[in-house]
Amino acid sequence: MLPCLNEAKKRTKNKVMVKKYKIDDNFRKLGLGKTYFIKTYGCQMNVHDSENIKAILEEMGFKESSGMENADLILLNTCAIRENAHNKVFGMIGRLKHMKEERPNIITGICGCMAQEEVVVNEILDKYRFLDLVFGTHNIHELPEILNKAIHNDKTEIDVKTIEGDIIEEIPVKRDSKYKAWVNIMYGCDKFCTYCIVPYTRGKQRSRRFGDIIKEVESLKDNGYKEVTLLGQNVNAYGKDLELDYDMSDLLEAVAKTGIERIRFVTSHPWDFTDKMINIIGKYSNIMPYIHLPLQSGSDRILKLMGRRYTKESYLNLFDKIKKTVPNVAITTDIIVGFPGETEEDFKDTLEIVDKCKYDSAFTFIFSPREGTPAAKMKDDISLKVKEDRLHRLNELVNKYAYEANLKYLGKVVPVLLENVSEKNGSMLAGYTDTMKLVNVKAPKEMLGQIVLVKINDVKTWSMDGEIA
Ligand code: SAH
Ligand code: SF4
Ligand code: F3S
Description:
Elements: H1 5-9, E1 18-20, E2 35-40, H2 44-59, E3 63-64, E4 73-78, H3 83-102, E5 107-112, H4 118-127, E6 133-135, H5 143-152, E7 157-159, E8 167-169, E9 180-184, E10 186-187, H6 198-202, E11 206-207, H7 210-222, E12 227-231, H8 248-257, E13 262-266, H9 275-283, E14 290-292, H10 300-306, H11 312-325, E15 330-337, H12 344-357, E16 361-366, H13 384-407, E17 413-421, E18 428-433, E19 438-442, E20 451-459, E21 464-468
Parallel strand pairs: 1-8, 2-3, 2-4, 4-5, 5-6, 6-7, 9-12, 12-13, 14-15, 15-16, 19-21
Antiparallel strand pairs: 10-11, 17-18, 17-20, 18-19, 20-21
Bound molecules: S-adenosyl-L-homocysteine (SAH), iron/sulfur cluster and FE3-S4 cluster.
């Protein structure tokens, strides 16, 4: 099955069923004696999907390889959000081709959001037929069958579903961390922001059932996990597709009541952020005072063209309400510059909001046209040079406020979940505050996995240093 963009646009009224994952016993020995390597691109959604893929492969007998060079099965879990994500993947596919020439018996494949794109699959069929398998975001649970076919086939096995299927519960998971876990609360997105490919690659919004989510969080807590991140493309819309009487604030409250130590959620679309939700976040101490609230643009004209359905004013109102209700909250954002037709005035509106909100940090991007989205057809006459200049100016401002936000931590004592050995210095541990600030701490390895109080001695733009208080 090949993906189809026109079909992917459609939103069906089909009832979403909840089914249970099951592996056919015939596939359990397929990977015995072989190793796998997965390279993951893109957002947390993909990171978590890779955790599921790893566990499925291990059920089939595969073992994780330490590197790509000696793996028998190599999968690229891809991201389609911007052109540079695409280019990175195609660069890697080129590398895989060389590996396949040197070691013809390896199995290579791609999955994830790029696999859902018609243009990508056509390009693969045209130029990269050495790949053994391509599967999409909607059929990860069918990986054992797909892999079985790919192994016994000479041609590229392409198995991509355009229309989302059901919600599959109990897919096994091999989590990257012993302390922090991703928990899907919804799949897909129905917002159709005009620049964005996600509603096409991830399908319609489907919320997981309340009970299944709570059960997963409780089991994580029982297994010693300290932190859960509730995942979705716009988590605030959780439950809207279910016609039941609960929403994101009810879910947050129920997750808080499980008593797990830390809860956060990504991503929040400003549109569905209710007062009830803000109050719940303020009320429970185990809901982390950290909110990612994508702005995208500060210009009402551009926001309208983007289909974001809020204005500069309503965004600022929401921002202020959150700041007032949630003590010490850290707010981060996403911003796109160079959207088609963005004038210097529009861009200055964005800078003005950044000046007002003084974000703790921000991810900033140059608009990248995605084939099939409405914005890709809009007239775009701003030169790359101007776009790069705007990105640079924006980043200077963002960095300034990120540093200022960190400066407020100097000398303070804050809770940090120590999660790994510091990348810069092997004698330090690294972790995050409940506001998602990266802290390097002088502490023994035995403290990994604990939430400890740390005194901050030094701050930089993107990290801080501290010692156990
Ligand atoms: N669901 C999230 C966004 C996921 S994509 C939300 O609505 O907030 C992450 C970020 O990538 C977006 O917030 C946006 O800033 C950026 N992005 C998405 N499509 C893009 C495009 N075509 N060009 C540049 N940036 C884009
Ligand atoms: Fe993309 Fe908008 Fe959906 Fe976010 S809310 S995933 S930006 S369409
Ligand atoms: Fe990329 Fe797909 Fe996530 S396009 S950002 S991996 S949902």
